Amino acid sequence: MGTILRDMRHVQWHELRHAQGSASQVPGMLSRIAWGDSESAEDALSDLEQWIGALAVFDATVATVPFLWELAAMETVKDRAGVIGLLGTILAHDHAHHQEWTRDAHLAVLAGRATAERLVTDSDPAVSTAAGKLLTACDEHVCATCPPRGVS
After folding, report:
1. For residue 145, which of 108, 109, 111, 98 has the smallest C-alpha distance?
2. What is the pLDDT of residues 99-123, one digit of tens each?
3. Are the C-beta atoms of residues 81 and 129 closer than 8 Å to each other?
4. What confidence score (pLDDT) does residue 151 get?
5. Residue 51 in 3-state DSSP?
6. What is the DSSP-derived secondary structure letter of residue 20?
7. Residue 113 in contact with residue 149, Cβ under 8 Å?
């Protein structure tokens, strides 16, 4: 697996849930985004968005966000702008019955701010634009479950 995504093996994915059920398939999706051809990576990113962020966030979302930040920073990933967009989607959604998932998912996205700041100057215009949008979303983020800025 190399150095990227190597810590995926430490996550008990089968114990986590996403919109379609067990998160045991999430590592495969992340791997396809990291190393798949353009079509395979795009399909995996689309599936992952539906599973962990488009409708609501889940405990699998919380576990996935650090790996999404890794993928966003890797120049060899085919759709880094899409990965950054998924991070923005996660920041914009919640889970009505599990506020702790919402808070933890949002905080995990916000924790990657330094990576987004680096990506704003990326040579790929799609990546730099997506990173700029995500930084704006981070700056404007306010929700009932997240602590106010400056409070941890």
Report:
1. 98
2. 999 999 999 999 999 999 999 999 9
3. yes
4. 53
5. helix
6. T
7. no
Contacts of 59 by beta carbon, 8 Å cutoff, 6+ apart: 16, 17, 23, 98, 101
- Give pLDDT < 50 ranges for the chain: 1
State CA 75 to chain mean position distance: 16
How far, rounded to the nearest angstrom, does the alpha carbon of residue 31 sit from its chain's CA centroid?
14
3-state SS, residue 17: strand
List, as one string, the DSSP characters of 63-126: HHHHHHHHHHH-TT-TTHHHHHHHHHHHHH---TT-HHHHHHHHHHHHTTHHHHHHHTT-SSHH
Q: What is the pTM of this model?
A: 0.93
- Which residue shows structure tokens 């114990």? 15
Q: What is the DSSP letter of 36?
A: S
- Helices then strands, counting H and E runs in the chain, come out as 7, 2
Report whether 69 contacts 80 (CB < 8 A). Answer: no
Nearest alpha carbon to residue 119 among 132, 137, 136: 132
